[in-house]
Write the structure tokens for this entry.
Amino acid sequence: MSFVRFENVSLAYTEDGPRAIEDVSLDVREGEFVAVVGPSGCGKSTLMKLVSGLRLPNDGYVYVNGRQVGGPLNLVGMAFQAANLLPWRTTLQNVMLPMEIVEPYRSELRSKRAEFEQRARAQLAAVGLAGCEDKFPWELSGGMQQRASICRALIHKPRLLMLDEPFGALDAFTREELWCMLRDLWQAQPFTVILVTHDLREAVFLADTVYVMSARPGRILERREIDLPRPRDLDLTYTDQFARHVHALREHIGHVRKH
Amino acid sequence: MAIRQKTLMRLAPWAVTLFLVIMWEGICVSFAVPEFLMPAPSAVFKAGIATAGPIFEHATQTFFTTLVGFALAVAVGLVIGAVVGSSPLVYKALYPMLVGFNSIPKVAFVPVLVVWFGIGTVPAILTAFLISFFPVVVNVATGLATLEPELEDVLRSLGASRLDILRKVGLPRAMPYFFASLKVAITLAFVGSVISETVASNLGIGYLMMSASSSMNMPLVFAGLIVIGAMGVVMYELFAALERRLTGWAHRGAGAAL
């Protein structure tokens, strides 16, 4: 039984408007790390909105955890290219935000605040932000802000993490550092990840399965299993095996570009 | 060097004020300008001391009508701003009305208020309110309407209600806009109450200036003007300080420079 399932899903943002995605079908197992790559404007972000229930499809069905998606689901955590931390809150308070909204934590917050804060501190420490709890977001570097943003996405222990080009705005070195951070988080405590990106190396390094989407309207062109052994090390990205996967994916993108 | 720069910054407003007063005095004395046209600062000061009692009494009246009108404007402005800012439909529906109303010179509206409420304090409060609520509405609405869609998505995907989003993100985010509008609104509120007092009241600085000018007592008129200006500056600074304290996160660039 798949955890996330798309059955011939299509979505147009306006009636009679062009379709953002068309006839998309895919299956994600629980605990699987999936990456979706494609040229810009291929409807990758639309995919995220469909899974998280922010948008409902015009055609087809989206199932998460065996049930059809009919509205926002709080078993999902999300992070975007911009960290979107609230500048009037400290890092710790930012990470605590979902606890103030998601049930059952919300009603328990008053009695268990200390316990939840402890959890947030542990989460921050796990991504290398120990000691930054009381700093404000603008006192953190871009990479640190993105780490905090991922902590915020994970604090309510979602079963599905949705990442929309989370490392797109970072420099190459910071990006690789954060790949490793995400890899470690995922390996320590498995959850399902759907990572939207246009960095093919990122997709191959992190994911179990990579889907390639076409330009608008977005369609799935290719599903590729990345059979590289885990745990994966950054050195892996310089091997022939790794390069072959990247090349194969790149060919599909190149094909997309010509049309 | 940095310390000298800092002292200079602090002294500059006082130095400019002093310079203008001296220029004014010099021009009045050297060209022998008659007092009923343009009184010298020394004459204004003398008139101020001589009529300190009545000035204080009228200034207190103006101050309180202004504050009451301003408080109403803040309360109503916040509510309307929150509604307009969080619903595009209400925004569309209400905006032409608000802009149209704001374009009416409030002095033209005072006679209507007098017919409804009689002369005196009530029209002054209402004029202060009417003239100062618009900037609050516009700023709060702007603060709310410019919320980043990704941030809204994050919250909605967690199952946040519209009220949750308003409380956790919308309102805190709109606070710098709100405080910026308070500084504008408080000075406008003084304009409103004084306008109403000059047209329809027998109390307040506006009334005092009207009666002084009808007896050609120009030094007293100028003393009144200066008192209004001073009250405006003090209140503006008060809200500026409040703004720096409560929304420092939005002004960290300016805060670092000071």
Observations:
- The first helix of chain B runs from residue 2 to 30.
- Chain B has two domains: 1-30, 40-250.
- The CA atoms of residues 17 and 109 of chain B lie 35 Å apart.
- The radius of gyration of chain B is 22 Å.
